[in-house]
Amino acid sequence: MGWTFRSSSLMHVPTLAHRSWHSDWAAMAGACSLGLLLLLLQAVVTVSLPVIVVRLNKAALDYVSDIGKAPLQRALQVTISDFMDPSGEVLQSTRVQILDVHVPFFHLKFLAGFGVHLSAAANFTIKVFRVPEPMELVLPVDLMADVHVARDSIGTLVLSVPTCSSIFSPASMLDGSNSTSQELLDLVQEHIRADLNNKLCLHVYGLVQDLNVHLGTLIGLSPVGPESQIRYSMTSMPTITSNYISLNIRAILFLLGKPILLPLHDAHPFVLPWPSGDEEAMATVGLSQHLFDCALLMLQKAGSLNLDITGKLNSKNNPLNTSVLGQLIPEVAHLFPEPTPVVLKVQLGATPVVTLHTSNSTLHLQPFVEVFAAPPNLALQFLFSLDVMVNLDLQLSVSKAKLRGSTSMLGGFQLSVATSNVGSVDMDQVHTLISTVFQKPLLDHLNALLGMGIVLPSVLNLHYVHSEVLVREGYVVVSSGLSYQR
Fold first, then answer.
1. Any domain includes 51
2. Which secondary structure element, helix H or strand E, spans residue 75, and what is its range?
3. In a domain, 402, yes or no
4. Could you say which of 163, 195, 216 is where a domain stops?
5. Distances (CA, A) of 425 to 330, 340, 383, 431
6. By the number of CB atoms within 10 A of the CB, which of 226, 297, 327, 383 ranks highest?
7. Global confidence as pTM
8. What is the extent of the structural domain holding 438?
């Protein structure tokens, strides 16, 4: 983005002054363009730094191995070409069919700096439709493959299989009484091995490609609220050790399609220390302070934290009316001799602040409260306004794939008069009434919002289970199991 100049269609020779004027403007335009470019680059750097670290441990690989047996068995159910039987006077084309594939062993382990090594054992039950007597045999096969794990251009995980091999063991007849000769059995095995040798690895490749499609659901917009979304993507190549794979995740929150951007603290990427949380858990998720700051800024900008509290006449639970208020502020009683409901309009002008200390998280709010009388069939009439400060205890939990929060009071409200239309307001008199009426609606409203939660990085149908949330200095750690549910 920069300055655009349109010259006149009339040709003229510029004077020295003209040249100087154009030169000055060109220099200014260049400076402005450079400044804008630097701002854009700064914004790109800001949103490119990771704010979440997802670490998948050995237990996660064990879980994938367990739930991956059935898909692998289905993938290995391939078609075998006909066997040319030489037993008769002429070669006879004989159908060969895999009746069943059983995978008794499937194991995954991390390859440091590369990806994952796959090893599996499969038993193929195969029928050869010979006439007059068909053959049924069991063929054991060991599969091995190295799966490379990387980041693609759009910021999601992508898997590839640079090496794959299959090792065949001798087949055994399913029916020991079968009179098939060893020579014929050897010919059948040779045919099946030659036919399956490439097909098995091709189907492993296909299974990995299907998994890539599923991993692609890591990115994309996930709803947070009616007008807000969050988008996750990887910022760099994954870090892979013999114990875990670690993913640096960028999280961008959007409100009405526009990103919520805050400068990262000290402009350094978030680093999750090792070890963190439960090393035996399938997944460890580190959430930086920056994520919480952006989420609260989004709620503030959306106006989601604002609320109205309306008093009722003759109510013990909410005695917020001019009759009760008039007992504390004489001018209110003078202006409204008949009892009239009072409305508190609560707005958060300042962004809420989350503070994360070891085993403790707090939420600091500075609401601005306007107090109105609400006469029947008339416009609201302003009485006075208050600056409020309140500290809340923030409890975090994980349900399915969402981080949720709930709050409770830490101490009381600090109230001070900002402006008044009813003369002097003695806060010692008004404090108890306002605090009593204000506290429950505020907590109910906040807990309903925070209880909606924010989606954590995950792929389609994958949930976090048995999660433990730990608060550390400046970040939060979630240790969790994983559950895949179709």
1. no
2. helix 58-75
3. yes
4. 216
5. 9, 19, 10, 10
6. 383
7. 0.82
8. 260-484
